[in-house]
């Protein structure tokens, strides 16, 4: 799974990503600790420290990320 995430990070270079990073002063789009704690407690999950926010992936990006592992 780590290799897939690494591949997805490489594809994640759209303007939207950079705009949100600047707006929220969070250029890596790392999860906010307060939000992370809330999700963990509500859903009884353990979210890894290296979790990141990803959105708006094209299907071919997802396919390529899985195919290249």
Sum this structure up briefly.
The protein is mostly helical and 69 residues long.
Strand content: under 5%
Largest sheet: none
C-alpha end-to-end distance: 9 Å
The tally of helices reads 4
Low-confidence stretches: none
The level of helicity is 55-70%
Would you count the extended β strands for me? Answer: 0
Total of domains: 1
The radius of gyration computed from the alpha-carbon positions, rounded to a whole number of angstroms, is: 13 Å
Average pLDDT works out at 81
Shape: flat
By helix and strand content, what is the structural category? mainly alpha
SSE string: HHHH
Q: Can you describe what's shown?
A:
The chain has 69 residues and is mainly α. The chain has one domain (2-67). Helices cover 57% and strands 0% of the residues. The protein contains 4 helices and no strands. The protein has helices at residues 2-11, 15-23, 33-43, 59-67. The longest helix has 11 residues, at 33-43. The radius of gyration is 13 Å and the shape is flat. It starts with a helix and ends with a helix.
Task: Set out the fold topology.
Layout lengths: L1 H10 L3 H9 L9 H11 L15 H9 L2
Notable traits:
mainly alpha, 69 residues, 0% strand
């Amino acid at each position: 799974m780590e290799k897939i995430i690494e591949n997805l990070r490489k594809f994640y270079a759209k303007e939207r990503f950079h705009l949100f990073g600047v707006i929220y002063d969070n250029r890596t789009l790392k999860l906010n600790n307060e939000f992370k704690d809330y999700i963990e407690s509500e859903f009884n999950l353990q979210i890894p420290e290296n979790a990141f926010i990803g959105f708006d992936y094209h299907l071919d990006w997802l396919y390529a990320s899985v195919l290249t592992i």
